[in-house]
């Protein structure tokens, strides 16, 4: 597969690393205006770093756009005359709907919207995807690309903003929970490195339990909470302090913000 990542910033480079990690491309173009910080990627023989978006589009079949929303329309306009019937356009851009993409390049292209997260760099993204009418013919291809780098779920486009909050911003939310757990562990006597090791592997174990068993979180909680024991004591105190409520409120605030950004 010949892949171009237009906008090799935080997310674009995470995708590039995921693709390299999974040997997922025959050639990969990485573009940004200032290429000096990412030249090192050319040490991988099949990677070309350039600021020339048109060259990247001409030489690739799969185009993954990962620029800031304010830059996207200009870039699509810059390359639209080069788009052929073979190109698959995959946008990761927040709040930029399929209809807006079609307005610029036309509806006669395979257009996919995807919402991965930065864990794609280590092959463990949760990626939601949807497509335009024609793009439905390439959705399995897009799923295959993202499944090599984590887990994929096809969703209706009107859930894309919610998916951004849960999956993309979600990385930051879970990081803060891991960090807080680490701070608690330090207070209980572990050094900082061990505290983080304990926190992140326990987090990983909790998610793996649900993924492997398909069980509900409360079932797993019931298996841990000894009557009159320390777990239920801690859990109830966390809830008295608003743990679930603050998480839900944070998610809803994030969603309200994303909807404001979309209107701008
Ligand atoms: N970060 C995340 O976790 C996630 C981000 N997203 C979405 O992905 C998009 C990118 O986000 P993020 O990676 O954080 O943003 P960044 O600002 O880190 O990356 C955007 C990149 O685009 C490049 N760029 C700007 N203009 C051009 C241009 N004309 N041609 C080529 N490249 C250009 C910039 O580099 P330069 O200035 O050198 O050109 C920059 O490296 C956003 O729309 C965001 O909403 C979605 C899911 C997760
Ligand atoms: O914070 C943001 O607005 C973007 C979208 C999801 C991740 N980063």
UniProtKB/TrEMBL annotation:
Domain Pyrroline-5-carboxylate reductase catalytic N-terminal, residue spans: 2-93
Residues at which NADP(+) binds: 6-11, 66-69
Keyword Cytoplasm: yes
Family: Belongs to the pyrroline-5-carboxylate reductase family.
Recorded name of the encoding gene: proC
Residue intervals passing through the bilayer: none
InterPro entries membership: 6-PGluconate_DH-like_C_sf (IPR008927), NAD(P)-bd_dom_sf (IPR036291), P5C_Rdtase_cat_N (IPR028939), P5CR_dimer (IPR029036), Pyrroline-COOH_reductase (IPR000304)
Keyword field: Amino-acid biosynthesis, Cytoplasm, NADP, Oxidoreductase, Proline biosynthesis
UniProt binding sites for NADPH: 53
Name of the featured protein: Pyrroline-5-carboxylate reductase
GO annotations of cellular component type: cytoplasm
Job of this protein: Catalyzes the reduction of 1-pyrroline-5-carboxylate (PCA) to L-proline.
PANTHER family (UniProt xref): PYRROLINE-5-CARBOXYLATE REDUCTASE, PYRROLINE-5-CARBOXYLATE REDUCTASE 3
Record-listed E.C. numbers: 1.5.1.2
Gene3D superfamilies: NAD(P)-binding Rossmann-like Domain (3.40.50.720), ProC C-terminal domain-like (1.10.3730.10)
Stretches assigned to the Pyrroline-5-carboxylate reductase dimerisation domain: 157-259
UniProt keyword Phosphoprotein, yes or no: no
Catalytic activity: L-proline + NADP(+) = (S)-1-pyrroline-5-carboxylate + NADPH + 2 H(+); L-proline + NAD(+) = (S)-1-pyrroline-5-carboxylate + NADH + 2 H(+)
Subcellular localization: Cytoplasm
GO BP annotations listed: L-proline biosynthetic process
GO molecular function: pyrroline-5-carboxylate reductase activity
């Amino acid at each position: 597969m010949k892949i171009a990542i237009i906008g090799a910033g935080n997310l674009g480079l995470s995708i590039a690393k995921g693709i390299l990690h999974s040997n997922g491309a025959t050639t990969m173009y990485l573009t940004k205006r200032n290429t000096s910080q990412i030249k090192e990627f050319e040490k991988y023989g099949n990677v070309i770093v350039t600021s020339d978006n048109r060259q990247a589009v001409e030489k690739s079949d799969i185009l993954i756009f990962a620029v800031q929303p304010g830059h996207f329309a200009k870039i699509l306009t810059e390359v639209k005359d080069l788009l052929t019937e073979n190109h698959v356009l995959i946008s990761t851009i927040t709040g930029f709907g399929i209809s807006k993409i079609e307005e610029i390049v036309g509806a006669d292209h395979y257009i996919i919207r995807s919402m991965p997260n930065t864990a794609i760099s280590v092959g463990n993204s949760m990626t939601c995807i949807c497509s335009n009418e024609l793009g439905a013919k390439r959705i399995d291809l897009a799923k295959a690309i993202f499944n090599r780098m984590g887990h994929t779920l096809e969703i209706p486009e009107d859930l894309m903003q919610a998916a951004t909050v849960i999956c993309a911003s979600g990385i930051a939310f879970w990081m803060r929970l891991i960090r807080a757990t680490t701070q608690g562990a330090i207070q209980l006597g572990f050094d900082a490195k061990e505290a983080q090791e304990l926190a992140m592997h326990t987090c990983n174990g909790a998610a793996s339990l649900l993924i492997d068993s398909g069980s509900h979180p409360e079932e797993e909680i019931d298996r841990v909470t000894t009557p009159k024991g320390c777990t239920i004591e801690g859990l109830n105190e966390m809830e008295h302090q608003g743990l679930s409520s603050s998480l839900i409120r944070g998610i809803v605030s994030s969603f309200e913000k994303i909807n404001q950004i979309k209107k701008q």
